[in-house]
């Protein structure tokens, strides 16, 4: 009864005035998506978008990732100008892609190329989830396949950072076939002795997790990343049961034997350097 | 006829009418032979019109027809001495996929396919043809064996998709599918894949990387079910019909997109109307494909497989 009398339910919603919105310049501060603590953008940039308070790994853009790993000025991009067409004449698809090109400054949800990581040469691909949720269409499949072929030709290792909601609906079965295309490319590369390292970042699901993301000689993930084949909602509807909180997290996948390691962002460059060195040394002995 | 699809109703009505008149003629003195002949001619035209102009959504219904022949039906008609083998050697035996060896016209082959049930009881046992990781790992085990003993592989694709369940995720559904895609790319024996019903997404593709990919005329192959696509794109699963048209999922669409090699014709009214004839149609295509592929060396086979997938996709 007393609880009811002292109920603190708000009767009004607080709408910030136009003035108060202007007070904090956009982009100066950022709130952690998990612990909601507020930080200066600059501070978060230094920690590579990892929350200094709770360790939550916020998404990292393709070029920020490249900057965080490659020796300055060594990264050379491949197929930078390749862009998406609308193979199924899907209504509204061209506009959506154009909008994301403007929003992100990228031509598609992936950057591929090669460069030096602490002096070690490697071929590289990084997906960017801010472009159509990193969904995989023809361009992404083609750029990955070409990067792998380039790596094979040049006897370079291949490192890929994945971030994708899965297949790109608007490209239908062509999107599905990119899973096959990239996997065939990886098989050829692997048979030639090539080293492939896959790092799954948040989120890596659907057709991407069920193809190249899972096909590294080493499969890593960033802490807390969502990794899985089917979506949580679909599984819950299918099996009519609530799934545990940690379902399909990187930690869940590690526990179930699906990952080699979980690697925090700050340790990534060192780990990759060591791995590249070990394989280079092993190869020169052979 | 147990299951009548919406677009078939005019045909069924006419057929019933003809049967009625025939019964009447045989039981009474009135001779209606002339009327019957007229109606039968009309039925012929109507059937040709309806089945000759199927819309994508009609084909989805055909592909999902409860009486549609399954992998096992075709195995019985096309091959001899089929021996089924079970288990993935890691976890269990997934009956949503069957695998074994058989003779195809005196040549030993490995046959693998998704297997739906014929009734509810069998469907529960076979999980409605929706595999878990152990199903894909069983399939891969048999493909590797086929390679070792130099047997061509024939895969029948017929699934709504890989099973979206908790246990499937825990045991690595993604890895199992990905592994199959990669390993199938490197098998040094001919692989012929045939979509006989629904080809649902990665769960279908995991038996679908090969040298030749064919589709039955009324089968579908898609990145997501029309219902799923409608829910994702327009937040309304009820718009599945629209999605079926927009997503380009029929054999004709895929042929146009250069994803498949051949469209295998179906018996009029669908594969379930005449399983034997349907099996003959499939048999002819398998025969042609095997002849063509057996001419290649192992190296040529792999190189051509890569060339085949390399060119799929459109971009600028």
TrEMBL record, chain A:
Its cofactor is Zn(2+). GO terms for biological process: fatty acid biosynthetic process; malonyl-CoA biosynthetic process. Residues 28-286 form the CoA carboxyltransferase N-terminal domain. It holds the Pfam family Carboxyl_trans. Its main location: cytoplasm. Its EC number is 2.1.3.15. It comes from the Bacteria. Gene3D superfamilies: 2-enoyl-CoA Hydratase, Chain A, domain 1. It is found in: Cytoplasm. InterPro entries: AcCoA_carboxyl_beta, Acetyl_CoA_COase_Trfase_b_su, ClpP/crotonase-like_dom_sf, COA_CT_N, Znf-ACC. GO terms for cellular component: acetyl-CoA carboxylase complex. Zn(2+) binds at residues 32, 35, 51, 54. GO terms for molecular function: acetyl-CoA carboxylase activity; ATP binding; carboxyl- or carbamoyltransferase activity; zinc ion binding. Binds 1 zinc ion per subunit. A zinc finger (C4-type) spans 32-54. Pathway: Lipid metabolism; malonyl-CoA biosynthesis; malonyl-CoA from acetyl-CoA: step 1/1. It catalyses: N(6)-carboxybiotinyl-L-lysyl-[protein] + acetyl-CoA = N(6)-biotinyl-L-lysyl-[protein] + malonyl-CoA. The keyword Metal-binding applies. Keywords: ATP-binding, Cytoplasm, Fatty acid biosynthesis, Fatty acid metabolism, Lipid biosynthesis, Lipid metabolism, Metal-binding, Nucleotide-binding, Transferase, Zinc, Zinc-finger. It is an enzyme of class 2 (transferase). Acetyl-CoA carboxylase is a heterohexamer composed of biotin carboxyl carrier protein (AccB), biotin carboxylase (AccC) and two subunits each of ACCase subunit alpha (AccA) and ACCase subunit beta (AccD). Component of the acetyl coenzyme A carboxylase (ACC) complex. Biotin carboxylase (BC) catalyzes the carboxylation of biotin on its carrier protein (BCCP) and then the CO(2) group is transferred by the transcarboxylase to acetyl-CoA to form malonyl-CoA. NCBIfam families: accD. Belongs to the AccD/PCCB family. This is Acetyl-coenzyme A carboxylase carboxyl transferase subunit beta.
TrEMBL record, chain B:
The gene is accA. GO terms for cellular component: acetyl-CoA carboxylase complex. Component of the acetyl coenzyme A carboxylase (ACC) complex. First, biotin carboxylase catalyzes the carboxylation of biotin on its carrier protein (BCCP) and then the CO(2) group is transferred by the carboxyltransferase to acetyl-CoA to form malonyl-CoA. GO terms for biological process: fatty acid biosynthetic process; malonyl-CoA biosynthetic process. GO terms for molecular function: acetyl-CoA carboxylase activity; ATP binding; carboxyl- or carbamoyltransferase activity. It comes from Oceanobacillus arenosus. It catalyses: N(6)-carboxybiotinyl-L-lysyl-[protein] + acetyl-CoA = N(6)-biotinyl-L-lysyl-[protein] + malonyl-CoA. Belongs to the AccA family. Its EC number is 2.1.3.15. The lineage of its organism: Bacteria, Bacillati, Bacillota, Bacilli, Bacillales. InterPro entries: Acetyl_CoA_COase_a_su, ClpP/crotonase-like_dom_sf, COA_CT_C. This is Acetyl-coenzyme A carboxylase carboxyl transferase subunit alpha. Its main location: cytoplasm.
């Amino acid at each position: 009864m007393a609880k009811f009398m002292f109920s603190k339910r708000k009767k009004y919603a607080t709408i910030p005035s136009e003035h108060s919105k202007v007070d904090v310049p956009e982009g100066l501060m950022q709130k952690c998506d998990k612990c909601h603590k507020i930080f200066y953008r600059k501070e978060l940039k230094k920690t590579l978008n990892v929350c200094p308070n709770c360790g939550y790994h916020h998404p990292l853009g393709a070029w920020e990732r490249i900057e965080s790993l490659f020796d300055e000025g060594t990264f050379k991009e491949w197929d930078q100008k390749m862009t998406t067409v609308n193979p199924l004449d899907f209504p509204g698809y061209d506009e959506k892609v154009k909008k994301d090109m403007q929003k992100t400054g990228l031509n598609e949800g992936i950057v591929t190329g090669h460069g030096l990581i602490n002096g070690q040469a490697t071929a590289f691909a990084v997906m960017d989830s801010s472009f159509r949720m990193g969904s995989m269409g023809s361009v992404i499949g083609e750029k990955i396949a070409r990067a792998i072929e380039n790596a094979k030709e040049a006897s370079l290792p291949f490192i890929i950072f994945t971030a994708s909601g899965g297949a790109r609906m608007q490209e239908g079965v062509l999107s599905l076939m990119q899973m096959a295309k990239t996997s065939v490319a990886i098989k050829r590369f692997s048979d030639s002795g090539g080293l492939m390292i896959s790092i799954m970042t948040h989120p890596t699901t659907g057709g991407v997790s069920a193809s190249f993301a899972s096909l590294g000689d080493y499969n890593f993930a960033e802490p807390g990343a969502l990794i899985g084949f089917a979506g949580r909602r679909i599984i819950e509807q299918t099996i009519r049961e609530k799934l545990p909180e940690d379902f399909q997290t990187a930690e869940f996948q590690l526990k179930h034997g699906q990952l080699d390691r979980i690697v925090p962002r700050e340790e990534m460059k060192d780990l990759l350097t060591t791995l590249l060195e070990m394989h280079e040394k092993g190869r020169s002995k052979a | 006829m147990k299951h009548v699809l919406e677009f078939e109703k005019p045909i069924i009505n006419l057929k019933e009418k003809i049967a009625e008149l025939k019964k009447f003629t045989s039981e009474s003195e009135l001779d209606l032979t002339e009327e019957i002949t007229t109606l039968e001619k009309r039925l012929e035209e109507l059937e040709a019109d309806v089945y000759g102009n199927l819309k994508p959504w009609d084909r989805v219904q055909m592909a999902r027809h409860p009486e549609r022949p399954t992998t096992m039906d075709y195995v019985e008609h096309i091959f001899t001495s089929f021996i089924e083998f079970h288990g993935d050697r890691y976890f269990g035996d997934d009956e949503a996929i069957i695998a074994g060896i058989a003779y195809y016209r005196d040549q030993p082959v490995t046959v693998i396919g998704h297997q739906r049930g014929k009734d509810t009881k069998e469907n529960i046992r076979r999980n409605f043809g929706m595999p878990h990781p152990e199903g894909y790992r069983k399939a891969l085990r048999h493909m590797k064996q086929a390679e070792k003993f130099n047997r061509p592989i024939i895969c029948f694709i017929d699934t709504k998709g890989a099973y979206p369940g908790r246990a499937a995720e825990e045991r690595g559904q993604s890895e199992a599918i990905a592994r199959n895609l990669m390993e199938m790319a490197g098998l040094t024996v001919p692989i012929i894949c045939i979509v006989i019903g629904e080809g649902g997404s990665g769960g279908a593709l995991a038996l679908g990387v090969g040298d030749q990919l064919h589709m039955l005329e009324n089968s579908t192959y898609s990145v997501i079910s029309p219902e799923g696509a409608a829910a994702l794109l327009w937040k309304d699963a009820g718009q599945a019909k629209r999605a079926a048209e927009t997503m380009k999922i029929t054999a004709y669409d895929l042929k146009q997109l250069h994803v498949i090699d051949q469209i295998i014709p179906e018996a009029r009214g669908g594969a379930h109307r005449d399983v034997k004839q349907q099996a003959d149609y499939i048999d002819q295509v398998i025969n042609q494909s095997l002849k063509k592929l057996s001419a290649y060396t192992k190296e040529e086979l792999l190189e051509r497989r890569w060339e085949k997938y390399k060119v799929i996709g459109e971009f600028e």
